[in-house]
């Protein structure tokens, strides 16, 4: 397994990230994580909206410091609660604390904004993320499924105001199997790390891999 620097950081990540969205069985999850680690992989990706995924990672990962652990927030945690989704400070705070409990850790290495929320001012999201970084609960931040101009504007504001900028961005689907149609609107800004999701586009037109993974890119 080869490693690359993650964005403008000294953090070394394997070229393949292990996506854990479909984790459901503890024994199977443990076997997959062990096989991935034995192959040299060191990045585990989950999200607050991925069902039992966070809980299973927390229960099967025995070498926490060996992994670069990432999770995401934005998507709804509770359909009956109007504030249980979005990129605002309340949802970030509640989601992060919930994720830390489920993952059985005191910090995450990568904390992602799962989807761009046009209703929440980007300043609010950045300040909340910066607070989590300063509190030691998050090491690096990223944003997924957001137009490049949103990320560029956010990082310009962060640079001006001394906040933590987004370290990385991840495009939305389709995956690498259909990369010719990804379009330019969501290309990552120069100098930021990138993480490609679902390289096989859910198995469309390709043989499904034995382990659900996504590809990671280092510096652009």
Structural commentary:
Residues 174-188 and 199-220 have low confidence and may be disordered. The relative contact order is 0.16. The chain has a single domain (3-217), classed as TIM Barrel (Alpha-Beta Barrel). The strands form two sheets. Strands 3-4-5-6-7-8-9-10 form an eight-stranded mixed barrel. A two-stranded antiparallel ribbon has the order 1-2. The chain is globular, with a radius of gyration of 16 Å. Helices cover 29% and strands 20% of the residues. With 220 residues, the chain is of the alpha/beta class. It has helices at 26-38, 53-60, 89-103, 122-134, 148-161; strands spanning 3-5, 12-14, 16-19, 43-45, 68-73, 108-113, 138-144, 168-170, 193-195, 213-217.
């Amino acid at each position: 397994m080869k490693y690359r620097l993650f964005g403008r950081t000294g953090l070394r990540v394997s070229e393949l990230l292990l996506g854990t969205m479909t984790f459901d069985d503890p024994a199977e999850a443990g076997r997959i994580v062990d096989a991935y680690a034995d192959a040299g992989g060191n990045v585990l990706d989950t999200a607050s909206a991925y069902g039992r995924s966070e809980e299973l990672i927390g229960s099967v990962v025995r070498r926490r410091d060996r992994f670069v652990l990432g999770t995401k927030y934005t998507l709804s945690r509770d359909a009956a609660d109007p504030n249980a989704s979005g990129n605002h400070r309340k949802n970030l705070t509640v989601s992060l604390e919930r994720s830390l409990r489920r993952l059985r850790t005191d910090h995450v290495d990568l904390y992602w904004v799962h989807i761009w929320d046009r209703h929440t001012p980007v300043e609010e999201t950045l300040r909340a993320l910066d607070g989590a970084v300063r509190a030691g609960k998050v090491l690096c931040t990223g944003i997924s499924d957001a137009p490049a101009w949103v990320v560029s504007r956010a990082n310009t504001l962060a640079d001006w105001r001394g906040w933590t900028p987004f370290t990385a961005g991840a495009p939305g689907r389709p995956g690498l199997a259909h990369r010719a149609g990804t379009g330019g609107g969501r290309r990552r800004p120069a100098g930021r790390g990138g993480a490609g999701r679902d390289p096989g586009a859910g198995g469309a037109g390709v043989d499904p891999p034995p382990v659900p993974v996504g590809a990671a890119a280092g510096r652009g």
